[in-house]
Design a protein that fits this description.
Elements: E1 12-15, E2 23-24, H1 28-37, E3 42-46, E4 52-53, H2 56-65, E5 69-73, H3 87-108, E6 113-115, H4 131-152, E7 156-159, H5 171-182, E8 188-193, H6 194-199, H7 204-210, E9 215-219, H8 237-246, E10 253-255, H9 260-265, H10 267-270, H11 279-293
Parallel strand pairs: 1-3, 1-10, 2-4, 3-5, 5-6, 7-8, 8-9, 9-10
Helix pairs in contact: 2-3, 3-4, 4-5, 7-8
Length: 298
């Protein structure tokens, strides 16, 4: 009897924002263990300096002993340099994040993807009339970070947010054009989020069918930011899973939910988000629902 051929792997990951506002040397192990006990196979760690204060030694220890840190999520918000208007300052910070990803790769054998909307400033009122100017600066910034990441053998995934947070990009089709202009598909790709695609009125399944090889990170978020499987979630998970299977897509699937502490601490991102289930319960529910739909595959 021939051995059964294994299909693509799409393990469930969780992001640290779900469980705690800030992680540090004292609580990182506990936070990661909670995520693991709830069904997660990997951990997306927020690398923003206001939310993450962990030594490299503790990062490597937890990644080796509990579960891999599969992504470092970076973003620029209030008080941060603007990647489009202060590109040198933003680039210096991105280099530090890329260096951290490369360090973890050397220590653990699994190099995290650098994810998030790191190419622009969240909710900054960029002039939508200057589309070409914003676009050019964004392409230059993504390319510059990509060149450094390529030297360090680190993969970057850039995220499109909802329109009010993301005035530098006009939806997912525009983002596809920008990534094509960057021209580094193996190094600089998309961080896809089903919640944001839904708000732009774009189909995650169709985006997957168009460019599965350039999606380097995938946030599985329910409609209106609810947990997948929640009564108010209407994302077509079965259709998304079918598109992934057709493309033989292998990508980590990350459940991104937001606890009360995060919503209160980072209102620029979290205001108006639904008060969904507590962290461990939400992870278990998302794991069950996404496994049922076929979005995640161990």
């Amino acid at each position: 009897m021939s051995a059964k051929k294994k299909g693509p792997k799409r393990p469930l990951n969780v992001i640290s924002l779900l469980l705690t506002v800030g992680v540090n040397d004292r609580n990182l192990g506990q936070v990661m263990q909670t995520a693991k006990n709830s069904g997660a196979a990997g951990f997306e760690l927020t690398s923003h300096p206001a939310l993450m204060k962990v030594s490299r030694r503790v990062l490597a220890k937890c990644a080796n002993s509990i579960m891999p840190i599969t992504a470092l999520c970076e973003f620029f918000g209030d008080g941060d340099p603007d990647p489009l208007e202060e590109p040198d300052a933003a680039y210096r910070r991105m280099r530090r994040v890329i260096d951290l990803a490369a360090f973890l790769g050397d220590e653990t054998g699994t190099t995290p993807v650098v994810t998030g909307p790191w190419g622009f400033k969240i909710e900054h009122p960029y002039d939508r009339r200057d589309v070409s100017g914003n676009e050019t600066r964004l392409i230059v910034g993504l390319s510059r970070a990509g060149e450094y990441a390529d030297k360090k053998k680190v993969t970057l995934a850039h995220e499109v947010l909802q329109a009010r947070e993301c005035r530098a990009i006009n939806g997912f089709a525009h983002h596809e054009y920008i990534l094509n202009a960057v021209g580094m598909p193996g190094t600089v790709g998309e961080h896809h989020d089903t919640f944001h695609a839904d708000l732009w009125g774009e189909s995650s399944a169709e985006i997957i069918r168009r460019r599965p090889d350039t999606i380097h990170w995938f946030h599985a978020s329910g409609s209106s930011r609810h947990s997948p499987g929640h009564a108010s979630d209407h994302i077509p998970w079965l259709e998304i899973a079918s598109a992934m299977d057709e493309a033989k897509m292998e990508v980590p699937i990350c459940f991104e939910g937001f606890g009360r502490e995060f919503r209160e601490a980072v209102p620029a991102i979290g205001r108006g988000y639904p008060k969904d289930l507590p962290g461990p319960v939400a992870i278990a529910q998302a794991h069950h629902h996404l496994l049922w739909a076929g979005v995640i595959k161990a």
